From TrEMBL:
It is found in: Cytoplasm. It comes from Bizionia gelidisalsuginis. Pathway: Amino-acid biosynthesis; L-lysine biosynthesis via DAP pathway; (S)-tetrahydrodipicolinate from L-aspartate: step 4/4. Residues 1-98 form the Dihydrodipicolinate reductase N-terminal domain. Homotetramer. It comes from the Bacteria. Signal peptide: none annotated. Its main location: cytoplasm. This is 4-hydroxy-tetrahydrodipicolinate reductase. Belongs to the DapB family. PANTHER family: 4-HYDROXY-TETRAHYDRODIPICOLINATE REDUCTASE 1, CHLOROPLASTIC-RELATED, DIHYDRODIPICOLINATE REDUCTASE. GO terms for molecular function: 4-hydroxy-tetrahydrodipicolinate reductase.
């Protein structure tokens, strides 16, 4: 595939190295999409900044270029992106976390929330840890996890950063040097603790998932998730 990288920071560079190893060609790498031409690309992969993501996605859909987006912090415009994709008969996939392990972790979280839903003894504690350059907090992955808990656990109706409020999934966001991404969900009672945790050892897992998603999406039309890519039901 000929790939355009929209955002050539830590993730853009990791994707470039892995995509070349898998036999793909990078035809565009940019940190400013305003002047760039997508016509040579089979597909675009956006790992940029929250303020740029929706414009980058729109530009791809208007240009009939399939788009894989991993940028977090722009989801107030997600429904607009979905509508544009449908209008243009385009191809679009977004994931707050492209790693194959986190895609499975999302399913574990959902199942655990359902199983815990009637157990009033337990309170939840959601923690994410990332590197100090991260612009957004909480992480997109933590928000996806919290929203799934809210959808599947009868007690919880909202999420907030560092909250003691009733019915609230409290998220703690820590920033430490060189942490690629750790997410942990704890259910704590007076007598025990049950926890699930995903630890990324590097950015390669995110990059691999985004490339696998691009390889899968390139000849399709529609709006998809990583569950579609990995055929998880
Ligand atoms: N879904 C997933 O699996 C993952 C998602 N992410 C998310 O991906 C995003 C990028 O992460 P990361 O690579 O670590 O961040 P970086 O800050 O290393 O890279 C972001 C890059 O985007 C560039 N940029 C700024 N404006 C634009 C624009 N208009 N068009 C294209 N690029 C632009 C920045 O350039 P400049 O420095 O010049 O401003 C920078 O090089 C974040 O939102 C992060 O949360 C990260 C890892 C995994
Ligand atoms: O910014 C990052 O680095 C990461 N961002 C994503 C998020 O916000 O969830 C995914 C991953 O945890 C790394």
């Amino acid at each position: 595939m000929k790939i355009a990288l929209l955002g050539y920071g830590k993730m853009g560079k990791t994707i470039e190295a892995l995509a070349i190893k898998r036999g793909h060609t990078i035809v565009l790498k940019c940190d400013d999409t305003s002047e760039n031409d997508l016509k040579n690309a089979d597909i675009a992969i956006d790992f940029s900044i929250p303020e740029a993501a929706f414009n980058n996605i729109s530009k791809c859909l208007n240009n009939n270029t399939p788009i894989v987006s991993g940028t977090t912090g722009w989801l107030d415009k997600y429904n607009d992106a979905v509508a544009l994709c449908k209008d243009k008969d385009g191809a679009f996939i977004y994931a707050s976390n492209f790693s194959l392990g986190v895609t499975i972790f999302f399913e574990l979280n959902k199942t655990l929330a359902k199983m815990m839903s009637n157990l009033k003894e337990y309170t939840i504690d959601l923690e994410e840890i990332h590197h100090t350059q991260k612009l957004d907090a909480p992480s997109g992955t933590a928000i996806t996890l919290a929203e799934s808990i809210i959808d599947n656990h009868q007690k919880y109706t909202q999420w907030k950063l560092d909250s003691n409020a009733e019915n609230t999934v409290s998220i703690s966001a820590k920033r430490l040097d060189n942490v690629p991404g750790t997410h942990r969900i704890k259910y704590v009672s007076a007598v025990d603790t049950l926890e699930i945790k995903h630890t990324a050892h590097s950015r390669e897992g995110f990059a691999l998932g985004a490339i696998v998603a691009a390889e899968w999406l390139v000849d399709k039309t529609g709006v998809f998730t990583m569950k579609d890519v990995l055929n998880i039901r």
